[in-house]
Amino acid sequence: PGMDGYRLIEAVGEGLGDGSTPILVLSSEDSPAKAERALAAGASAWLAKPFTSAALVGAAAPLLGRAKQQT
Question: Which of 7, 10, 33, 66 has minimal Cβ neighbours within 10 Å of its Cβ?
């Protein structure tokens, strides 16, 4: 409550402190400015709706692989 998505991304990053948890933003807005803001806040990737299952897997797979390598 009282927190937007950008602040949530920042809070997750601050709470974990090591950047090991990837954050994939799924948004109903296809806005380059909002995507840049989310990435600057600490998101790992941005995917605008509507998207295909292939696009979701394509965005998530590298993030999961990177997270697995860090553990």
Answer: 33
